Amino acid sequence: MDKIKEIYVPKWASYLYALLAIALVPWIILLAQYLPAKHLARHWDALWVGFDIIMLFNIFLTLYFVIHRKIWVIVSAASLATLFIVDAWFDVLTARPGSDERSSIGQAIIELTLSFLTFRLIYHIIHQSTDKKDIIIRRKK
């Protein structure tokens, strides 16, 4: 029988994320009620160029960890997969109706596929690194 490997997570982590989840609900409701449906943004170009630079950095970081076979690839890949989803979301929602919107939807499909493949990579690495042992995550007391 395989040994069970226990990973201990600090107790504060559950409290922090529970508090954040509770605090985020009224914040979302307030935003939904008070934010305007349309808004002109200053530095629109800097926002998107900066976001793409962040994605590029994260891609290089993930590539570096893959090439050097570092377990940190899990962290950078999770971040990268999330950035793909965020980029797809904002591209579609900020596109002008018509051909820009259709193009954004096509690109979003590619980015969501890349996100899925990146999350699949994370699953594969975790599965391979555990040597098929069961892992139990516990809070420290």
Structure description:
The chain has 141 residues and is mainly alpha-helical. It is 72% helix and 7% strand. A two-stranded parallel ribbon has the order 1-2. The two termini are 28 Å apart.
Secondary-structure blueprint:
Elements (H helix, E strand, L loop, with lengths): L4 E5 L1 H24 L9 H24 L5 H22 L4 H31 L5 E5 L2
Parallel strand pairs: 1-2
DSSP strand count: 2
Distance between the termini: 28 Å
* Low-confidence region ranges: none
What general form does the structure show? globular
Largest sheet: 2 strands, parallel
**Share of β-strand residues:** 5-15%
Supply the number of helical segments.
Answer: 4
Order of helices and strands: EHHHHE
Rounded to the nearest angstrom, the radius of gyration is 20 Å
Structural class computed from helices and strand pairing: mainly alpha
Helix content percent band: over 70%
Mean pLDDT: 88
Question: How many structural domains?
Answer: 1
Major sheet: arrangement of strands: 1-2
Structural key phrases:
two-stranded parallel sheet, globular, mainly alpha, 141 residues, 4 helices
Give a brief outline of the structure.
Helices cover 72% and strands 7% of the residues. It is mainly alpha-helical and 141 residues long.
